[in-house]
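Work Package 3 (structural annotation) set out to generate three-dimensional models for the target panel prioritized at the project kickoff. During this period the team completed the workflow that converts sequence records into discrete structure tokens, so that structures can be stored uniformly alongside our sequence database. As a representative example, we reproduce one entry of 437 residues exactly as it appears in the project archive.
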Amino acid sequence: MESHSTVTLRPICQRVNDTIGNLPTGPFNFGLYFNKWFYVVDGNARPPKGLKKKSRWSCPTSVDSVLERRHEVHPQQCKLLDNLNTSLVLFNGASREDKWDRRQAEQMLSARHVSLAYYCESFRKLGYWHETRKVGLSSPLIVGLGNEHPSEKGFRFDWTLGIPMIPSSSIKGVVRLAFLVNRLNSFEDPDDPSLLEFCYNIQKDGTFPEPARSIFGSGGDERSNRGKVIFLDAYPEKLPRLKAEIMNCHYPDYLNKGTRGPTEDQDPNPQRYWAVDPNIDDKGTKVSFVFRFLIHKDIANDQDKFRQLFEAVHSALGDHGLGAKTAIGHGRFDTKGTSKSEQDRAKAPAEASPKDKPAADKVIEQWAAVNVNWDAGRQEVNATSGNKKGFTKDRSVVSEILCKTLFDKKKVVKANVTVEPLGGNNFRIIVVNPVDQ
């Protein structure tokens, strides 16, 4: 009997296909594999008996039941066509064979966080204060489901790293929505003239009222302007895992064909797609995403605008959700995990940035290029300058660029330290920045 060993096809040239092999191994861009190297059913090959015509040239997310049953098809062919499961095994490192080298991806992700930290620090010279929030994911995250993809179920990976990420445009859009919802909820009386004016201005030409205009920017033909908050892409703190999610069309004859009503005797049509697993390991440890915001001093030094901005951020992450399927609870983050130090900074951004304080404040001292170390036993950051000693238990005062060396590797770092006196030779550390800042 004739073998149908050519039922699978990867839509790339033969030389590239031979170089990759059946499945890529070692370090490679997982996003490129996801978008370009999946297998499809070869429409030119003679398919096994029973294979539906519409399945030809398709990119399945699971092995077709007909292909599983037909003994003419080699088992390897079925494995290659199971694109979703195979990609999950590769990404999560669940198999010793055909394994993606996650170590290089982890190193590249760490390097990206460092480069973003330097990028944020550089904006201080332009009058921006930067806020970094690490927030734990509490439900599966689905980003880029509507992206073009051979399986018709896409996913968003960083183009150069091949790592799941959340685009800045998506973050800004949801935060802006949350900001406006919070503002609408602040009106107790539905007939309040201020509420009617608020809605009318938006409806008239898309112009947001203050303070939304200055924070997010605004369109409109007459009063368009650029916002004073820059939203950056969000990346996971550590490399996450991927998982399969599913949605069902319970009434295909009713919804797709319109030939009958939504009766319960119709066969559901399950559709599987990819999502970021909120658990980073089998112990239930949650994956965290790092959100970065560059805030112009006009907003950072205005406590009311700063407060409203981060109330909207917390509402967006915790209540509205990011990505797809938020109506059923996906894309939610645990905003209750915000540390006390970050809450204090949200209340008084001007006080959190000594560089923005007036020159008349004589009590602040700057120690240049001094040794800073982390006392793990006392959970304390220490610095010395001559016979002067500085300390703090607030880890958030340390620049993100120095955190890994100081806290994870527990090594002494050279840094510029801003302190205020507590009495005698004792000082409280306010800010720890790299020497080149």
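The longest strand covers residues 365-375.
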